[in-house]
Amino acid sequence: MLLTIIMLICMIGIFGKLLGFAIKMAWGLTKILFSFIFLPFGLLVCIFTGLFYIAIPVLALVGLFTLICAVAD
């Protein structure tokens, strides 16, 4: 339960930053849908079905990408 709450907090932080990037960079509709509908939904499915070993690395990679983009700006 605690790991799920921590994962949800991290997801909110990471995808909140991605939302800012999407609006700032004026991405296309497809990229926005993927970034804010399909990827978080996929991670939530992994978390609630017990596939933490897939969800954690994916969330870490997305967070690393977001961090690199933030430093590049």
Tags for this model:
mainly alpha, globular, 73 residues
Your description of this structure?
- The chain is mainly α and 73 residues long.
- It has one domain (2-72).
- It is built from 3 helices and no strands.
- It has helices at residues 2-25, 29-48, 52-72.
- It is globular, with a radius of gyration of 12 Å.
Number of domain units: 1
Number of helices: 3
Reported for the largest beta sheet, the result is: none
Gross morphology is globular
Average pLDDT, to the nearest integer?
81
Q: Radius of gyration over alpha carbons? A: 12 Å
User: What structural category do the secondary elements indicate?
Assistant: mainly alpha
> What is the helical fraction, as a range of percent?
over 70%
Q: SSE order in H/E notation?
A: HHH
